[in-house]
Amino acid sequence: MTTTQKKNTTQKTLVIFDLDGTLIDSAPDLAAAINRMYAKLSLPDMPIETIKSWVGNGSLKLVERALAAHGIEANKLDEAHEIFLGEYAACSTDATVAYDGVSLGIAQLQAAGFQLAICTNKPARYLPEILAHFGWQTAFDVVLGGDALALKKPDPAPLLHICEKLGVAPDAAIMVGDSKNDILAGQAAGMMTLALRYGYNYGEPIDQMHPDAAFDDFDALTDYLLMMAPIKA
């Protein structure tokens, strides 16, 4: 772990998590859906590591990057996006796994008195099935998809929306993510930001975004959060 700065000493009561690359490794299923989309467009596959570098700004941007990689013009975007959405719906939990320590960590943070939320740029239509797949249906007080509001991360609007919905001041919330979109959104919202190094950040070290702390695994993150718990577990 590395720590940079503490934003304030306000008691933290809410932890907002990103989803892809933070709680779950969904890259295999996202890549499968992109490659199935390619097949329907008579385009060659791309490797998973390449597709992983495109994840983080929502499904439309993912497909836009996928088309650009083959030099396909933007006028094909809507058609390709619809194909992708259908393909991903058919495989969204086939090979997706939770990162080590996530389910236990979520339970520990709940027991310690934190409110928990998810703020993802993934379309909302996929979230109920994914949460049910991991048994997390009741773990989060708010689950906000990337198409729920007009703006998505790195804009702070989704994070502020969650705070308003739960009646929590932004400086009492913590944003946890793997991408610069998460850290930029949290910083702009006036929240503490915590980063995980194992996710998807366009091939860039997440420490370069200067989160308040960064961790190599979820267990270390959980231990750090428990030190700030509203009540002791």
TrEMBL record:
Keywords from the UniProt entry: Carbohydrate metabolism, Hydrolase, Magnesium, Metal-binding
Keyword Magnesium listed: yes
E.C. no: 3.1.3.18
The keyword Flavoprotein appears for this protein: no
GO MF annotation: an example: metal ion binding
CDD domains linked: HAD_PGPase
GO annotations of cellular component type: cytosol
Residues that bind Mg(2+): D18, D20, D178
One GO term of the biological process aspect: glycolate biosynthetic process
Alphabetized InterPro entries for the sequence: HAD-like_hydrolase_sf (IPR050155), HAD-like_sf (IPR036412), HAD-SF_hydro_IA (IPR006439), HAD_2 (IPR041492), HAD_sf (IPR023214), PGP-like_dom2 (IPR023198), PGPase_prok (IPR037512)
Top-level taxon in the UniProt lineage: Bacteria
Pathway note: Organic acid metabolism; glycolate biosynthesis; glycolate from 2-phosphoglycolate: step 1/1
Catalytic residues as annotated in Swiss-Prot or TrEMBL: D18 (nucleophile)
Matching HAMAP family: GPH_hydrolase_bact (MF_00495)
NCBIfam families: HAD-SF-IA-v1, HAD-SF-IA-v3, PGP_bact, PRK13222.1-2
The protein's role, per its UniProt record: Specifically catalyzes the dephosphorylation of 2-phosphoglycolate. Is involved in the dissimilation of the intracellular 2-phosphoglycolate formed during the DNA repair of 3'-phosphoglycolate ends, a major class of DNA lesions induced by oxidative stress.
Name this polypeptide is given: Phosphoglycolate phosphatase
Organism: Moraxella porci DSM 25326
